[in-house]
Amino acid sequence: MRSTTSSADDDGAADQQNPGPTEQELEANRRKARRRAKSRNWTLFLLFAGPNILLILAFIYYPLLSNMYYSTLDWRLGSATATSVGLQNYVDFFTSSSGVEVWRVTGIFTAGAVLGSMILGLLIALVINKKIPGRTAARTAVFSPYVLSGVGVALVWNFIFDPHRGALSHVLAAFGMSSPQWYLDEDWALFMVIIVYVWKNLGYCAVVFLAGLQSIPKDLLESATIDRAGPARRFFSIVLPLLTPTVFFLFVTNIIFSMTNAFDILRTMTPTGHGTNTIIFEIYLQSFGAYQRAGYSASIAVVLFFTLFLITAVQLRFVERKVHYA
């Protein structure tokens, strides 16, 4: 008994000599642990995201900033000398008749390509969403043109649109009609490339619309059918409002694609840009065509960048308010 009491007294004396960490020391340890955790997170972040960030900076933002610098120069492609002209290239583009023509052609092409792709894509999606024989093969056939090379598609359509030996000229001749001068008339040339672009890209819209249609709850449509709502009423009152997120997504992406991804078709079908010089094609023609105006071409590229940025920002700010998310 005496021994136990003596041991307890010894422990109490040791506790009094080593009272343990103070509150300040505990707080310092917690701060040190938080710093170590934060340092470890930053190390992992830089380890995994660092290479991608470097690639983005090297291949996207560095060329973008360099292009902005070139846009302030009067520089011919291949020339060893360049003269700084400030914003004169931008002034020339916005005030010249050729610049106005580029905006006109770009606006018509974008409107025709976006509306044509989305309307036809929605109609096709409504058809292949039905339980019909060969539905899987039809979906594959509709989407196939989207993954084909734009150059290959344009070459095939060149044979179709040939005014003398093309397949379309024979079809029109069967109805007693002559083929339009697709390549000589500027208006017909623009209409021709819009047709080809829509044909190539409507499969993308159809597949995205199909995914949107299949996400609509079936019980809503069945309830509307029981209430004797017709197909048109069900489409405009149920299907179309629930498709607005899909419509908004396709509207944004199609505008961007039509202004940036149509170059291969335009260059192959109309190499000189006769009536089809959209803004992306004008960048090529001014820099690598007969003009060799690299500085002027760089200024048009900068204008295209900020135009797409502004259009997308306006769509996200105002158009998205009309979107109905279920």
CATH architecture of the domain at 97-320: Orthogonal Bundle
Order of helices and strands: HHEEHHHHHHHHHHHH
CATH homology superfamily of the domain at 97-320 = MetI-like
Main sheet record: 2 strands, antiparallel
Give the integer mean of the pLDDT values.
87
Shape: flat
Strand order within the widest sheet?
1-2
User: What name does CATH use for the topology of the domain at 97-320?
Assistant: MetI-like fold
Contiguous runs where pLDDT drops below 50 for at least 5 residues: none
InterPro entries: ABC_transporter_permease, MetI-like, MetI-like_sf
Membrane topology: Multi-pass membrane protein
Domain ABC transmembrane type-1: 103-315
GO cellular component, one term: plasma membrane
Any overview of this molecule?
The chain has a domain at 97-320: MetI-like (MetI-like fold), CATH 1.10.3720. Helix content is 75%, strand content 1%. It has 14 helices and 2 strands. Strands 1-2 form a two-stranded antiparallel sheet. The longest helix has 48 residues, at 23-70. It is a multi-pass membrane protein. One of its GO terms (cellular component) is plasma membrane.
